[in-house]
Amino acid sequence: MTAEPGLKPRPLDPARLSVLSLPMHDPRVRPLLDELAVEYDTRYGDLFGRTAAADELNRYPAAEFEEPHGALLVVQEDGESIAGGAFRRYDDATAELKRIWTHSAHRRRGLARLVLAELEALAAARGYTRLYLTTGPRQPEAKHLYLTTGYHAQFDLEADPETIGSLAFTKELPTVPRDAWAN
User: Fold this and answer.
1) Distance between CA atoms of 17 and 74, rounded to whole angstroms?
2) Distances (CA, A) of 164 to 16, 138, 149
3) What percent of the chain has pLDDT over 70?
4) What value, to the nearest 5°, has the Cα angle with vertex 125 and ends 79 and 35?
5) Beta strand pairing status for 130-135 and 152-153?
6) How far is residue 74's CA from residue 90's CA, in Å, rounded to a whole number?
7) pLDDT digit string, tens, across residues 37-68
8) Segment (H or E) for 164
9) Is 100 helix (H, G, I), strand (E, B) or coil?
10) Fewer CB atoms inside 10 Å of the end CB: C or N, the chain?
11) DSSP strands (E only) in 12-53
């Protein structure tokens, strides 16, 4: 699945990938949410407490990630859920990205960038013109991903992330003509 230490990760083969739009309760979403909870507890348990991951993952009702205002996407490779992400309505013009995740056995393969691109395109097609997201101060790889994919930090990049708390980012989306929504 994942590369041995010192070896390059296996490149993505688009023919083996599928992007699915799923409801939160779909069993194909569960592996990502379960691993996300472990990751949150590992990184933030000493900061926010051991129930913080469950609290965060249950903060928003599942309906907020459904059409017409939200979405949850899962990337599968050969039928296995390996990455995903979601958005919900933040305000009339802004979608808030949530749950961007790549399974630990599939990192460093470009999946997070793929998930972002899919979510951005879908949000634009749904009429959003702006994206907003937050990531935690102990996720430097997420901070790097967002900065290198056109997101603008809404915090002082020179400050110690631990003193900031949630790291907020925004990105303007291209306007999609209304007649393109039907495609």
Assistant:
1) 10
2) 40, 11, 22
3) 87
4) 35
5) unpaired
6) 21
7) 888 788 777 766 666 666 777 788 999 999 99
8) helix 161-164
9) strand
10) C
11) 17-21
